[in-house]
Amino acid sequence: MGSKQPYLNGAYYGPSIPPPPKAHRSYNSPGFGCCCFSCLGSCLRCCGCCILSLICNILIAVAVILGVAALILWLIFRPNAVKFYVADANLNRFSFDPNNNLHYSLDLNFTIRNPNQRVGVYYDEFSVCGYYGDQRFGSANVSSFYQGHKNTTVILTKIEGQNLVVLGDGARTDLKDDEKSGIYRIDAKLRLSVRFKFWFIKSWKLKPKIKCDDLKIPLGSSNSTGGFKFQPVQCDFDLS
Q: Are strands 151-164 and 209-218 parallel, antiparallel or unpaired?
C-alpha cells in the first residue's frame, strides 16, 4: 500500500503519483555577462601582450640589422684616424699676481685633417682647454660643424681671462725657468663629441681624447726668447 502523498487532498491508496511539474521561469544567468566580459578582457590583454612583443622583436631586429650594416661599412672603408695639429700659437699674456690668479691670453690655431675618402665627421661638441703644470687655467668653445671627406679644416681659438691657479713645487720651478727664457710649456686638450658618417648611415656619438702636450710658446712681450718661433705640433688621437 502506497504512502499518502502530501500533495493529495483526500485519501488515496493506489500507486505513488509523481508530483506535478513546477512552473519554470526563465532568468538570464547573472554569470553569463561576467564570463563574457572576463573572456573579452583576457583576449584584450593577450592581444596587447602579443602586439608589445611583436614591436620589441621588430625594434631588436632593426637594431641588429643597423649594427651589422655599420660594422660591414666600417670593415669595408677602414676609416683612418683624423689628424689634429696645433699649426700656430701666440701667447700674448701669461702672468701671476700675488693672489695666485693667472692672467692669460692665448691664441691656438688648429689644423684638422680628415684623410678618409668616404667618411665625414660631425663635430657636435668641440672645446679647447689650456693647462699649465697639470692645472687647467682656461678654455674656449667652438661651434659645431661638419667636416667632409678628404678635407682639411682650420680652427681658430682664443683662450683669454683670469683664473685662480695653484701650482705645485715642481710647476713653480718650471714657471721660474719659463719666465727666464720667455718660452712657456703649455698643454692643450680637446674635448670632442663626434659622429662618423658612412654614406647615409651615421655612427653613434664618440668622445675621442685629443692631447697636444708640451707646446713651447714664446711670450710675445718677452725680449729673452732669442728669436724662438713656435713649431707646429701633431696631437695624440685616442678613440678609446
A: unpaired
